[in-house]
Amino acid sequence: MLTGNLVRVRHVRNKVVPQYLDPNADHWRDVAEQLIFVYGDAPGHMRSEIEEELSNLVGEGPGQIVHQGLAKLLDDRCDYETATELNPAEVREAAFRLAAVQRQLAAKTGVPFDRALALAQVSEELQQPVDVLEQALFADLAAEQKVLKFAPITAEQLLHRYNVALAQAVLVRSTNMEAVVRGESPARFRQLFRAVKFHRLICTVRDTPAGAYTLELDGPLSLFSSTQKYGLQLALFLPALLHCKSFRLTAEVLWGAERKRKTFELDSNDGLRSPAPDFGTYTPPEFAVFAENVRQRADGWTIAVDPAPVPLGPDGIWMPDFTLTHTKTGHEVHLEFFGYWRRGNLDAQYQRLRKRLPGRFLLVVSEAMRADEADDAAFGPEVVRYKRTPSADAVLAAADALID
Fold it and tell me: pTM of the predicted model, to two decimals?
């Protein structure tokens, strides 16, 4: 991800337009290849050594913002290790404490402060050699971290990744976002809706003419809390949308220190390429675990893990996560899992489904991911709450209650 000081945009009236790079431009490919060469040789070296080698390639002025951004994305691909088995904070605490005593004695006696003596006392107290302690003293500082490995990337891939990172950095400043997706297969739509669920986004889906779906998502700046985490999840959702062959995204953003309201637009013709693998009909692990628990515990129910969209008449369309079918009566109960949620958002979905699918739905809600003030929110038996992981027993009991 790009930090705020690395984001390059221009303003056209009320629009924010990211300044994307041309991945086919020889100049930017040369820059990317030089930076990749530095990081490709990074494993085994300290971060400070890498920064020194980069100093001739990446300056600190505003004219170097692209170079800095590319280097940041490459740094994100590194795994770092603190090069000590000791706790640096504990070593520093002992060293500073004993050094303070030494300095007080030096001030009283006039004898110069003896660093070696102070370290010898730390060595005796912690039962560690002096050279090991000196290595551990500041080992948790970023400059002293050692690179364990670097995930390889080509120059073209890095430039495409930079463009996506610019768009993601804009979205984390959004109050709302609307994405219209057209002409995809049911499997692709289901993958997209599951990506919404996987990233626990607050979203409403409705169908539009000509086989399209519209996803209306809350932006992080519309939430009462969890802004930073939710913004990251929204940014991480973008690569899933980029796998779609025809889409148009429009977001309202609050820009700058004054939070001026701007519009950000992105569509499939902008040429952004998803950095994420296309997993097709990927199922989040927690969904698979829940479905297996239901199969093992269900008495008189079957579970469908790939349900079809459920039409809600004038209220659009609903994509449940699972469908339970009662084996004796054939009664269906559709399940939707909520990640981040607000009372108003959950209540709107609850009332919508209660109106269109009475007795045929359950909303499974995480208490830990509520994104507004924790005042009491009372719902009917169609809402099942959980604290850590959803309980198959609780969901099945709620489904039985609907049948009864």
Answer: 0.68
